[in-house]
User: Fold this.
Amino acid sequence: MDIAEISAILPHRYPFLLVDRILDLEPGKKIVGFKNVTINEPFFQGHFPKHPIMPGVLIIESMAQIGGVLAFKSTKGNEGQLVFFLGIDRAKFRRPVYPGDQLRIEVEVLQERPPYWKLKGMAYVDGKLAAEAELKAMLGQSGQGGPEK
Assistant:
C-alpha cells in the first residue's frame, strides 16, 4: 500500500501521519509497514536540538497507526469507521531511533473481539529491535466521539 491508500484509511495528516508504506498485509493476522525518519520531522527541533532522537511515544503512535490499518483492512462493513487507540501495555524501548533511520514496524493480532483488537507491535531499525508494545484499539463510527464514556 502506498501513502494514498494509507491516507484513505487513516484520518491522520502531516505532521502526524507516521506511516510511509505498507509492505505486507495478512488480514486478521499481521502487517508490516515502514516509517522513514528524516531530520525534517518537526519534533527534532526540540527533541533534542544537539542530539536528535525520535520520541518513544511517536514510535508507539506509528505502531498504532499501522495496527489501525490492519484492523480496518481485516474488518468487513467498516465504511465510515475510524480506529480508536484505547491503550498500551508492556511498552519497552530498546535503542534510540535517529534521523536517517527507517523503522520497520511489524504488528500482529493477539486477540480480536469485534470491535476490539489487541495487537503486538515491534519496531526495528537495521534488523535490531528498537521498541515493542501491546496495543488495544477499537473500530467505531466517526462522529460519535470515539469510545463510549
